[in-house]
């Protein structure tokens, strides 16, 4: 019996602002616990939030890059729940009128390029951070709270349930992270929690209705995302095979050490949160002209760049896709072309072949290269002039990579 897997993702992206969403506290990561707090982000009674315009700007830029319709008027709603890291007793979020809707993102999947729908994007605030400590000898278990993170601006990006495999889910999140980093909307540091996601998965038999979904939490890396989804798909298939499909939606957490997912709780429904418009924040009018200006200032996006690489440079589809997806790689490629009179395809072959292998082995990126685009152009020109063979050029490139020396000097040596 074969099953179909359906996945929808919710990315949480910390926006790269200087100050928090509702107050002037700094957003620096790793400061002394509770040093970056004030009555507003501590949720003290009587304090009032004031919206950070820069956060809205970054969210709108993300919305435009994700092809969303940007709301002309939106509002902030209170999502009520109790947890010690949320001292107000509610999180300010957007429920009724999110900032953006009906977008899409094009991603290169193993099965080909695909458009995945972006259902909505909305702005919300981060909660504080809880650290749990287990009991030890005479010391009982305890928890510590750090409110430095409380009130940081967070963008939630919700995809439609259109992803079909754990691998596609990883590819989509990788492409989203790269896009938002290139736009300088987020620093994308997963290890610091500034880019994270929840993943929803259900399975069903072909031709039947979608199954009930499980929401997976605690996915701290792309590897964890893919592994957790793969485990969860097999688990749900097992349940279906036994004739015991999920009766209720649940939230489960990924256990990295055991490599399994563990039941946390049944999912709350929207009604449980008693959403209502936050009376402390007036509705937000987003002027179309302001959005128009932001749109006009958008840098070239990966999809446009890919088209250009196919058209202007005549790159093979796979090369165009790989080179256009991130800014550092694209910038390097185009810089080499400025100094190299030969074929663009030769440059892409070297970058995606030998250079990519060297960078992978050294676990480094384009920003850490010791030689310049001009040096690579010189090397390839030597090959074209038959001064050195392609085989020698590979050796020279490896030395350039290690030492940063000029190709002419290496060949001389
Ligand atoms: P929640 O309240 O759980 O955060 P959201 O609407 O924010 O709800 O997110 C729902 C997510 O679940 C979306 O990414 C959506 O694509 C996904 N989803 C919805 N139904 C299914 C399903 N049957 N199987 C898999 N994913 C689903
Ligand atoms: Mg959600
Ligand atoms: Zn504050």
Compact overview of the structure:
The protein is of the alpha+beta class. Helix content is 34%, strand content 23%. Bound molecules: adenosine-5'-diphosphate, magnesium ion and zinc ion (ZN).
Break the fold down into its secondary structure elements and pairings.
Layout: E1 4-14, H1 53-65, E2 69-70, E3 73-74, E4 77-80, E5 90-93, E6 100-109, E7 112-125, E8 129-133, E9 142-146, E10 153-159, H2 166-182, E11 195-204, E12 214-219, H3 222-241, E13 250-255, E14 260-266, E15 276-277, E16 284-285, H4 288-296, H5 302-311, H6 317-324, H7 327-339, H8 344-362, H9 373-384, H10 390-403, H11 407-412
Parallel strand pairs: 12-13
Antiparallel strand pairs: 1-10, 1-11, 2-6, 3-16, 4-5, 4-15, 6-7, 7-10, 8-9, 11-12, 13-14
Helix pairs in contact: 2-3, 5-6, 6-8, 7-9, 9-10
Structure, described:
The protein is an alpha+beta fold and 413 residues long. Helices cover 34% and strands 23% of the residues. It is built from eleven helices and 16 strands. The protein has helices at residues 53-65, 166-182, 222-241, 288-296, 302-311, 317-324, 327-339, 344-362, 373-384, 390-403, 407-412; strands at residues 4-14, 69-70, 73-74, 77-80, 90-93, 100-109, 112-125, 129-133, 142-146, 153-159, 195-204, 214-219, 250-255, 260-266, 276-277, 284-285. Strands 2-6-7-10-1-11-12-13-14 form a nine-stranded mixed β-sheet. It has a three-stranded antiparallel β-sheet with strand order 5-4-15, with no helix packed on it. A hairpin with a 4-residue loop joins strand 13 (250-255) and strand 14. Helix 9 packs antiparallel against helix 10 (390-403). The longest helix has 20 residues, at 222-241. The chain is globular and about 75 Å long. The mean pLDDT is 96. The site of zinc ion has 8 residues, from loops. The site of zinc ion (ZN) has 8 residues, from loops.
